[in-house]
Amino acid sequence: xxxxxxxxxxxxxxxGDIHAALAYYYDHRDEIDHQIREDEAFVTQRxxxxxxxxVERKLAQRHAADxxxxxx
Length: 72
Hints:
72 residues; 4 helices
């Protein structure tokens, strides 16, 4: 997003707030990016451990029961 798009999307933020946030990010980019990767890995692990959701299981059951629909 451009700065103008950010201000339009988050009207409670001033242009100075956005510049400060971007400056903080660029000053701490490696740490922030590392934390984002760790968080994404954690979510992936939790999803894998949890297995399919109830909705995914119900959709799979419906698909298995309805052979008239082509796969995909």
